[in-house]
Automatic annotation (TrEMBL):
<protein>
    <submittedName>
        <fullName>Putative RDD family membrane protein YckC</fullName>
    </submittedName>
</protein>
<feature type="domain" description="Zinc-ribbon">
    <location>
        <begin position="2"/>
        <end position="24"/>
    </location>
</feature>
<feature type="transmembrane region" description="Helical">
    <location>
        <begin position="69"/>
        <end position="87"/>
    </location>
</feature>
<dbReference type="Pfam" id="PF13240">
    <property type="entry name" value="Zn_Ribbon_1"/>
</dbReference>
<keyword id="KW-1133">Transmembrane helix</keyword>
<feature type="domain" description="RDD">
    <location>
        <begin position="58"/>
        <end position="173"/>
    </location>
</feature>
<dbReference type="InterPro" id="IPR010432">
    <property type="entry name" value="RDD"/>
</dbReference>
<dbReference type="Pfam" id="PF06271">
    <property type="entry name" value="RDD"/>
</dbReference>
<keyword id="KW-1003">Cell membrane</keyword>
<feature type="transmembrane region" description="Helical">
    <location>
        <begin position="99"/>
        <end position="118"/>
    </location>
</feature>
<dbReference type="InterPro" id="IPR026870">
    <property type="entry name" value="Zinc_ribbon_dom"/>
</dbReference>
<dbReference type="GO" id="GO:0005886">
    <property type="term" value="C:plasma membrane"/>
</dbReference>
<keyword id="KW-0812">Transmembrane</keyword>
<keyword id="KW-0472">Membrane</keyword>
<feature type="transmembrane region" description="Helical">
    <location>
        <begin position="152"/>
        <end position="173"/>
    </location>
</feature>
<dbReference type="InterPro" id="IPR051791">
    <property type="entry name" value="Pra-immunoreactive"/>
</dbReference>
<feature type="transmembrane region" description="Helical">
    <location>
        <begin position="202"/>
        <end position="222"/>
    </location>
</feature>
Amino acid sequence: MFCTQCGKEIIDDAKFCGHCGAPLEATDQKTLQEPNVVLSTTSPMPIQVAASVAQIRPWVRYWARMFDLYLISIVSGIAISILYPGAFSEQNSDQFDQLFGLAVFFAWVFIESLFLSTTGTTPGKWLFKIRLIPPSGETADYSTAFSRSFKVWWLGFGIGFPLVSFITLLVSYNKLTKNGITRWDRDSGFTVTHERIGPLRVIFAIAFFVSFLLLAAIGSTIDIEQIIPADTTSWQV
């Protein structure tokens, strides 16, 4: 037999999975014998998912979130550069970059909640073929989505502080690989499923991240005021 939560083989008369601890008493025997079928244990009604790919994919989830954060960073950076060209100047660079990064992390809590409560996904989750299923089985309401996003920001990324973030990410990685679910998904009742990403999406994601790093490197060597004058009165003809 196989565990419906983590997919690992277990003994026939087991009541709990020895790998992830998931209860097995009320699970259909036929399903237990099929390793490529996963049942959700976090939503009110069981959700059967064809597991053509591994369903525990912490790195895929990480890069999907990084895609979202980098994307919102680009949009926010362009907007701030237009409204306040001196913000990214060399004399303000270090302090402003740190504040900007923390602000983007926090702002994404609200933006992601809006995405999840309206479209049910985010650009990064869509690109990496990650499906987020709320307890109701339909699109989550804003408060439920916000609760999950806030816990990801707080428990998963340590509000964006580098050292704290490294520790919280490591702890979350270990819990996901060991238990098959993160704390924020368990608390909010969400089920996360994965599908095959495909080569075109992988190529696009790599191109995006490489382009972002190149833009960041170029931006660090160019004073934005050389492109957009800080004195907006100079725009007048």
